[in-house]
Amino acid sequence: MEGLGFTVRSTDESFLQTLRGYLGAHRVGGHDGWVNLFSADCGESKTIAGGKVVHGISRLYSNGMKIFEGRVKDEMAGRLISGVRDLSTQHSNEFVRIRATGVAFDGTAVLLPSPPQAHLPALAGLLVQRGGAFLGDEVVSIDPILRRAHGVPLPLLIDGFDLPLFPGIEREPTRRRMRGTPEEIQAKTPRRPVPPEELGGVVAPPAPVGAIVFPFFEEGAETRLEPFGGAPALFRFTEATLNLHVWTDRAFLLQRDLMQSVPVARLVVGSLPEAADVLTAAAPELVRG
């Protein structure tokens, strides 16, 4: 990730080994300028009567500010990677950044812009398992000149409650339930890092945008793909733009032009696996326009 320097220190060497498995490709020997510091306090595990191991509370800090507290170190790794992703994209305003899942089929990108939604990464993972090349699970950047979609070369950050959808992934699913308002629960979603290679997929190079599909998550509804467009689609696209304050009216023009030049659809997601099946089946026709 060009331009971003970060380092991690930890009270437990095994946590650093875990991170190397996820981020090892980005290690460098040195970095000029400001370096972001992540500090991981991994707590202490204790064995109690009966041989049960109780894991201590782990805490993660970014430049001195606490950004995670919990007992599952893999969730702490997910929060750290989320922090790295934010740091690596927040200043890339030469792109229009979209909150979206992005996958490429036959070298052409399908974008799924959305408001904040915990199930987006799982949908991305299921699409990757079905042959889509990975661009992004929650952030995709659009080059406003070449109209190419650029991804972030980091692992997917799948909601721990969605892990049972991936039986081949060796992770313990999250079992505890979050408390609070829907917004608070969304902010505390326990993420687990999953590299696309672990799903049998690959990372896509920048790809021209060939279709825009807006997912609407309605648990239990009939999963279906249907026409969508006009002002509701433009509003939805705008709602998913992360740096609209930078691009202002130019973002509207880009999004309008994109939606006039490629197929646009609405994907009602009643079931994540069904949605992935429907979109994968429709993708060849969609990207051909």
Description of the molecule:
- A hairpin with a 2-residue loop joins strand 7 (96-105) and strand 8.
- The protein has helices at residues 13-23, 73-89, 120-129, 182-187, 230-239, 244-247, 249-261, 272-288; strands spanning 6-10, 36-41, 46-47, 53-54, 58-62, 65-70, 96-105, 108-113, 133-136, 139-142, 148-150, 156-159, 191-194, 207-217, 224-227, 264-269.
- It has 289 residues and is α+β, with helices and mostly antiparallel strands.
SSE order and pairing:
Blueprint: E1 6-10, H1 13-23, E2 36-41, E3 46-47, E4 53-54, E5 58-62, E6 65-70, H2 73-89, E7 96-105, E8 108-113, H3 120-129, E9 133-136, E10 139-142, E11 148-150, E12 156-159, H4 182-187, E13 191-194, E14 207-217, E15 224-227, H5 230-239, H6 244-247, H7 249-261, E16 264-269, H8 272-288
Parallel strand pairs: 1-2, 8-14, 14-16
Antiparallel strand pairs: 2-5, 3-4, 5-6, 7-8, 7-9, 7-10, 10-11, 11-14, 12-13, 15-16
Helix pairs in contact: 1-2, 3-8
Mean pLDDT reading: 89
What Rg, in angstroms, do the CA atoms define? 20 Å
How many strands in all? 16
Structural class: alpha+beta
Instruction: Please report the distance between the alpha carbons of the first and last residues.
Output: 33 Å
Shape: globular
* Biggest sheet: strand arrangement: 7-8-14-11-10
**Major β-sheet annotation:** 5 strands, mixed, barrel
Tally of separate helices: 8
Poorly predicted residue ranges: none
Beta-strand percent range: 25-35%
Order of helices and strands: EHEEEEEHEEHEEEEHEEEHHHEH
Query: Helical proportion?
Result: 25-40%
